[in-house]
Amino acid sequence: MSDYTPLTDAELLAASGRDAQxxxxxxxxxxxxxxxxxxxxxxxxxxxxxxxxxxxxxxxxSRKRFRDPGDGSAAxxxxxxxxxxxxxxxxxxxxxxxxRRRLGMPLQAEPETGPVLAERLDAEARRxxxxxxxxxxxxxxxxxxxxxxxxxxxxPELAARLHCTETTARKxxxxxxxxxxxxxxxxx
Length: 188
Known about the structure:
This protein is mainly alpha-helical. The protein has two domains: 9-92, Rna Polymerase Sigma Factor, Chain: A, CATH 1.10.1740; 125-188, Winged helix-like DNA-binding domain superfamily/Winged helix DNA-binding domain (Arc Repressor Mutant, subunit A). The protein has nine helices and no strands. 18% of the residues are buried.
């Protein structure tokens, strides 16, 4: 019989600062369970994989803030981070859907036949109008829209790159999209 007792999650997190394998063991314990949970919540496979990666990246960064609930398990902490990431993913999708509707873009991919194909060809023809409208935006709005819509940056990252608050970044994106929509509407 072995005297080996596996380390608790709390012990692995405490050791991870000096032993990266400890964090790897924590990952091995929880990654597949979090992935299955993410799939059950309705995330697509690729999104669930991304969620697991982002979860453990955030857990690594904030590992020193982990507080042992008394049983040594980090499961509740990890799943809490996962729930927050999932909620942010869904909000981001909702926000992107609203932006697509405001710009008159299709919400879902559809078979490209008949009217749908004609609409896509019209959109391709208007590409230069969009480029002109984007170029005419004031720099701070153009950069914000470019980073949020094209580069798909989350608002905290966008704010960091723009050297402003998250609220200011949101306002710049919103105002930029409004100006863009007005300029595109004026050309129709």
